[in-house]
Every structure is written in structure tokens, then in C-alpha cells.
Design brief:
Length: 138
């Protein structure tokens, strides 16, 4: 008779430990978010409760979501933003260089007919004058 009551008490104790254990485990991402002062800690807490009804399928994602944020660095994208800002300025500089080169090419193209006609005039003038042979060739 005593063993029946002991077994019943042990069964109730194990059930309570499992019940509270599951609740404590599902609250771990919320505790992480709270300690890191996560901006979405309420959403993580509510999603943890929803995760209880989905057999903790969401729980690993909540863990990741809670651990991504750090108060001192935020989401960690500041370095990426700085790199994008630097690349944007480099790109603007390259665009300016290309535009200046295009203007130079346009100027050269507009001056090309006058240069080529002056070269042709020089060629015709030199071909009309006979060249004198070198003394060495004589």
C-alpha cells in the first residue's frame, strides 16, 4: 500500500518536473533576449509560447533570433554598411572619371577632321617636293 502512494507521488513529481522543465526550456531564448536588451524580446517571448503548441519547432529559430542581437554592436551590420558606403563613393568617383574621359574623347573626335586634313596637307606637300639623295647614297 505504501509503495502505491510512493509511486503515485513519484509519478506526480516527475510530471510536474517535466511540465515546468518544458516551460523553463522554452523560455531560454526570451531570457537571452532580455539579458541582451533585445529590441524584439516581447515577440520572442510570445513566439516561445506559440512554440509550445507547435512542439518546439520554432524554438531553434527563436534561439538564433535572440542570440543575433548584441547591445554594443546591434545586428552586426554596421561594418557592412560602412563597406557599402565606401563602395558607393568609389563608384561615384569612377563614374566621374568615365564622364571626363567621354568628354575628352568627344573633343578629340571633333578635332580629328582638322588634324587629319592638316596631316594630309603635309603629306601632299612633302610628296610634291623631291627629296635630295643623301651624300652617302651617291
Amino acid at each position: 500500500m505504501f509503495l502505491d502512494y510512493f509511486a503515485l507521488g513519484l509519478l506526480i513529481f516527475v510530471a510536474l518536473v517535466l511540465f515546468y522543465g518544458v516551460i523553463v526550456i522554452h523560455d531560454i531564448p526570451y531570457e537571452i533576449a532580455k539579458s541582451r536588451e533585445h529590441p524584439h524580446q516581447d515577440a520572442i517571448h510570445y513566439a516561445g509560447w506559440v512554440s509550445l503548441f507547435t512542439l518546439h519547432v520554432l524554438w531553434p529559430f527563436l534561439w538564433i533570433w535572440a542570440t543575433l542581437w548584441r547591445k554594443e554592436r546591434g545586428w552586426g551590420f554596421h561594418k557592412l554598411e560602412e563597406e557599402q558606403h565606401d563602395l558607393h563613393h568609389r563608384l561615384e568617383h569612377l563614374i566621374d572619371q568615365v564622364e571626363s574621359l567621354q568628354h575628352e574623347i568627344e573633343k578629340l573626335k571633333s578635332n580629328a577632321p582638322t588634324v587629319s586634313s592638316s596631316l594630309q596637307n603635309e603629306n601632299t606637300q612633302t610628296s610634291s617636293h623631291p627629296t635630295q639623295p643623301n651624300k652617302e647614297e651617291q
